Amino acid sequence: MAQSEIERMPIVERCAGCGNIEDNVCRIWISPAAKWRLGTCPSATHVSVEKVETTEQKVRVGQQKQKKKRG
Ligand code: SF4
Prior knowledge:
By secondary structure, the chain is largely without helices or strands. The protein has one helix and two strands, in the order ββα. The mean pLDDT is about 80. The chain has a two-stranded antiparallel sheet with strand order 1-2. The site of iron/sulfur cluster has 13 residues, from helix 1. Iron/sulfur cluster binds near residues 15, 26, 28, 35 and 41.
């Protein structure tokens, strides 16, 4: 039986702590870097699905320019 050897790319920094790392390569994805390039790796065990909340609430604070007069 021919052993299919898939060349796996090294894990990336953000993989650190993931439970899918085996011998410094990812056992799920061939290219971890590509996974992270698209956002959070969907198979990462060490990160919870991050909600990228962009709170674009423009808090308008009334700009009150009060010049204090000295003297
Ligand atoms: S599953 Fe994702 S986070 Fe975990 S080692 Fe593989 S690529 Fe990295």
